[in-house]
Amino acid sequence: MVASASRGRAVVTLSGYGEPPGDRVRQLWVMRPGAEPRSLGLFDGDTPLVAAGLSRSATSLAVTVEPGGGSDLPTTEPVVQLALESVGFGE
């Protein structure tokens, strides 16, 4: 992951996870204190996902495995969660 708090963006790459089972997809979420997770998009294999519109209150990015087409809210526990405080978020 490469993130910029001043630009409110992050580029996230997943590798080593293989393809999700069946018609499932990997979905990226932004996590903020006191707020529901917000979807930042679906991964297409190992293609990096550019996440825009991140607020400084974001504390982490999480990846879940969801039904095909994605979900409005996460339906599974994250397979990975990336802290953002070290790159200027979480204020």
UniProtKB/TrEMBL annotation:
Residue span, Anti-sigma K factor RskA C-terminal domain: 1-79
Gene Ontology biological process: regulation of translation
InterPro entries: Anti-sigma-K/W_factor, RskA_C
Any one GO molecular function term: sigma factor antagonist activity
GO-annotated cellular components: plasma membrane
Organism domain of life: Bacteria
Protein name: Anti-sigma K factor RskA C-terminal domain-containing protein
Species of provenance: Streptomyces lividans 1326
